[in-house]
Amino acid sequence: MKKRFFLILLAAWPFVAGAQKITYLNLEGGSQWSLIKAADPGAYFEDAAVKSTLAGVTLGQEVATDLFLITGVYYQPYKEGIDLVDDRPHQSRWAAYESFLVPVRLELRIPYPGYPVSFQPRIGYVFGLMRAPEVAVTDASFLWTPDGQALVYDLQQEVIDGNFHMLEIGAGVGLRFSGFWQASLQFSYLRGFGETLQTTLAYEADGSPGSASLSSNGNGLYTSLSVGVPVSNVWNYHSRRKRARIENGAYVGKSTDREGEFYVGAEGGSLWRTFFSTSPAVGPRPMNDRGLFRYANLHTGLYAGYMFNDNLGLDLGAIYQRSSTFYALMFDHADNLVYKTAAPLYLEIPLRLRYRHKVHNHLYASLYGGASVLTHFSTGTYGTGDLPFTYTDPVGGSPATAGSSHAGTRTRQFSPVLRLGAGVEYELPLDLPLIATCHVVYLNGFLPTDDLVVTTTALATESNSISYNGSGWSLDVGVRLPLRFGKKGICEDLPEKTN
């Protein structure tokens, strides 16, 4: 069945591609949320939206004016988890299986008059290939519920089917550059058919037995950033470039002829890193006294780039990212132990494509997207230690003392990260043409690069993991200085300051 599916797809493609206009090669990556359904008569566990990542390559063929047939392959490391009905800031997440997704979809691009943007509704079918783990996921632990009941649970995961089928419905916003290059921000809903994964939970709540089940049929949401490169009709590509240049010059705020300029900049701000924990009772942040900046890390850096015109630029930078090790034990539905200390730094190398549009006088709305490499200079284990803590024994309900130990490890030297930012830019009223910038940035990591293992001895010895893959949010402020190549060298004339 799988071979037949791919053979039909490959056989049909040349007939479609040969008769139509243009073909795009798209590089795509982003975040995915698996929608897990929970069935629990005791109402201790609820539905969960478990975050994962996906990345892939697709090929899009224009079959009619602005209508594209798209297929390709995505890689998705599928995660599962349980959500307790409580106030703990983190829930249990673990790697369930790996999958390869093959979409076949139709996408319509509806341009917005006067601007190089388009609305892109899509619908299609997705075929999934699953690679199940060699050993099924199991876990056992205890914690106290918000209403003061001791909950001892044991879970067992089961992969039901090796393949799955899904319907995709979504929409996106596209931005077209010179030469028919495209960038798109996409949102999609996936509706699966047939159960693929089930997790059973046996638990005791204050001595009374109960059971719950979690199931998934592939339902999920995902958002992704893609860049499309035209790869067909090379023989008349020159005329296409000329037509694109004329079309781009017709957009509001665009000019057909404009001398490009170089720029340098600096930025810094706060980074809120996103972690994944295998237990709701062992998380990176406590239940109380988290504060807005208490668990944020400083990151700052420099960059340099080139503006192709008034609106579009490309830059490369280097960003220093300070790091911290912190975790909390919350067996009692309260903070049993809170620990925080410094950790080895990270260095991020971002490549960003930025677009800005004038809103009013010197004020611009700004968007940028790109990718970066996250690296570090640490080897071996760091941040080890042993700490005692006090918790409430679920058997007798009296205070008890146990021990905890922790050890951090940088598991990967290089990790890819997707960046997407939105904000404002303001041309300062100075003789020097400085531009002030402020952006809110979302970072989506793909591969774990840091792992903190916390071992506790309450009731039984158990080890839980808190991992980081480069994901998070940041608030960045900075300045940018435009430069221009003059006839006699760099910076012979600074760009004229507009009034």
Plain-language structure description:
- With 499 residues, the protein is mainly beta.
- Helices cover 6% and strands 66% of the residues.
- Strand 10 (163-176) and strand 11 form a beta hairpin.
- It is globular.
- It starts with a helix and ends in a 9-residue tail after the last strand.
Q: How does the SSE layout of this entry go?
A:
Layout lengths: L1 H17 L4 E17 L5 E2 L1 E17 L2 E18 L7 E17 L1 E2 L5 E15 L6 E7 L5 E10 L3 E14 L5 E12 L3 E9 L2 E9 L3 E11 L6 H13 L11 E17 L4 E2 L13 E11 L4 E18 L7 E24 L2 E14 L4 E12 L6 E12 L3 E14 L7 E11 L4 E7 L5 E22 L1 E2 L2 E2 L9
Low-pLDDT segments, ≥5 res:
11-20, 234-239
User: How many helices?
Assistant: 2
Number of strands: 28
Structural class: mainly beta
Order of helices and strands: HEEEEEEEEEEEEEEHEEEEEEEEEEEEEE
**Ends distance:** 66 Å
What amount of the residues lies in strands?
over 45%
The average pLDDT is 85
Strand order of the largest sheet: 1-3-4-5-7-10-11-14
Overall, the morphology is: globular
Q: Round the Cα radius of gyration to an integer and report it.
A: 26 Å
| Helicity range | under 10%
